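Researcher: Here's the sequence for the chain we discussed earlier.
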Amino acid sequence: MLLPKNIETNGPFPRLSRRLRLGVVGGGRISGMQATAARLTDRWEVVAGAFSSDPTRAKAAAAEWYLPEDRCYTSFAEMAAAEAARDDGVDAVMITTPNHLHFACAKAFLEAGIDVLCDKPLTNEVAEADALVALTNDTDCVFGVSYVMSCFPMVRQAQQIVAEGGIGSINQIHVEFMQDWMTPEDVADAPHVRWRLDPARSGKTSCVGDIGTHAAHLASFVSGLPLTDLRADFHVCGAPKPLEDTVFATTRHNGSVPGTLMATRLAPGNRGGLRLRVFGSEGGLEWDLEDCDRLKFNRFGEPDRVLSRGHGHGLSAKTERLVRSARGFPEGIIEAWANLYTEFAMAVAARREGVTLPDGYLAMPCVADGAEGVRFIDACVRSNSAEGAWVSVS
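Model: Thanks. This is the structure I predict for it:
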C-alpha cells in the first residue's frame, strides 16, 4: 500500500510507503528546478528521462542526471512505450518541453497509462487542450498543470478566506505580472528566449502564454470566479519581436465582476512582479510574489492585518500542510513547486491504490485548469486581432 489506511484530513500529508518514480521530458532550465522541488518532497525520485533527440546529448544528459544510459531516451514516444512495459517503470512524468510539443507528449504518456504533470500553457490550440481533457477522463489518469503560483501557502490561505466569506461579495479583481528580463535589446539571441518568440514553438503569443496565464489562473483560483470575458491589447514595447512582450487586458469574471490583467517583460526593477488584489463588499486581500510569505487582509473599518507564513501562526490546517518552516524563516518558489509535486504525488498514489481522497483535500491545478488557460490565451488573441473588442473566453 502506497498510502496509509486512514488519512487524517486536517493533518499533514502522509508519508508514502515508497518514493514514486518520476520521468522527465525536456532538458531545459525549468526541468532542473522542478526535479529539485520533487526531490524536496521526499516522495519522488527521478529514474528516467528524454532530454534530447541527439543520442550523444542524451548520453551526456544521463550522466548529468545520474541515470543509467538505458533509461535516457531520444524521444518521448520511445520513453512512454519502454517505461510502460517495465515492472519498475515511471509512475508519472513531468513535461517541460517547448509549448508545441506538450500535446503529442502528454497524449503518448496518457495512452500508455502514465500520469502527467505538464508545464503551461497546456497546448497551443483549444482543440488540443479539449482533447487532453477528454483523454485524461478516458484513461482515468492524473493530470497536473504547473500553475505553481497557486501553490504558495499564503495564496491557499487567501483562497480559503475568500471561500469563507472573509471579504464579503467580490466586486473587483486586479492582477499583474511585471518582469524585466526582456529589457536588453539583444535578449532575443539567448537560446532559452528564441523558442519563446518563435510562433511555431511558442504558439500565437509569447508574454500572454508564458506569464499572462499565471496571472489569469491566480485571479480565478483565489476568487473562485471563472474568467468569462475580456478585451486585450498586445504590445511590443522594446526591440522588434515577432510576438508580443506586453499585454493589457480588461476582464470580467463570473457574475460580471470586473477586473484588470497586465503582464510585461519590460518593466525594469521588476523580477517576480506578480501581484494580486481582490476586493469585496467587506474587505480586501493583497499578495505579492516578491513578498510571498505575507498576505495583507483588510476588513473595512478595522485595522489592517498582515498574515505571515510559518508554523504556529494561526493559519488554517489546509495551509499548514504546505508549510515547511517556522515563521521568520523564508520559503520561496522551490517550496511552492514542492507543494505542487506533493499534491501530485498524493493524487498519483491514490489512483494507483484505488483510493478516493476527500473533496477539497487537494487543490492542485489539473488538466481542466490548463484547458481554461488555453481558452484565455485564445480569447486574448481574438480580442487583440479585433482591435481590443470584448470577446467571450468560452
